[in-house]
Amino acid sequence: MARSFDDATRRNIAELCAAFTRLAPADAGPMLKRAAVAIALTEADDGVGTAFLLTRRSASLRSHRAQWALPGGRCDAGETQVQSALRELHEELGMALGERDVLGMLDDYPTRSGYLITPVVVWAGARAAITPNPDEVASVHRIGLDAIEDDDVFTFVTIPESTRRVIRFRLGGSHIHAPTAALIYQFREVLAGRNTRVADLEQPVFAWK
Length: 209
Known about the structure:
- This protein is of the alpha+beta class.
- It contains four helices and eleven strands, in the order αββββαββββαβββα.
- It has helices at residues 7-19, 81-93, 145-149, 180-191, and strands at residues 33-43, 50-57, 68-69, 72-74, 102-105, 109-110, 115-123, 137-144, 154-159, 162-171, 174-177.
- Strands 1, 2, 3, 4, 5, 6, 7 and 8 form an eight-stranded mixed β-sheet that branches. It has a three-stranded antiparallel β-sheet with strand order 9-10-11, with helices on one face.
- The longest helix is centred in the first third of the chain and has 13 residues, at 7-19.
């Protein structure tokens, strides 16, 4: 069922994030580089429900080109994860939000490519202007929260290269993989009031570099 885009939904999601017990993964080593992404909540395409913003990365980027991603990137020296997520949101989508707009943080996710990603849940508002940076973003998509709450949109498969399960999120005719799929999956679980961990969910081999 779609969540109305209103103050009641904002309060409800903030309460769910506050009730979530955030943990750092036990195997996160000091060599991992800090990064942060924003789960930015705004109105859905229908103008009624709530959605989060998902981007398709530019094909000209050096790494992870043309892949689906939440807005975000590496933390600069001296930045907190929240500051980094807000800065990246502004650099990629032109959205100027502040720490007052942050609803909470989810678990850190360690990637095969050497990053420790912190998801930051942000209420972007209905009137937040979105101006994608063409150097980084090929397209921006509003994904309704009802689209991630269906039972069959997340699947788990095995690969010969790992003993861990690979998570996939089906979006239309595409499959989105970890880390993005894992972060979205945990957010879905938080919305359901569950403390589900995702650090052990695997990425496909093509994302290991």
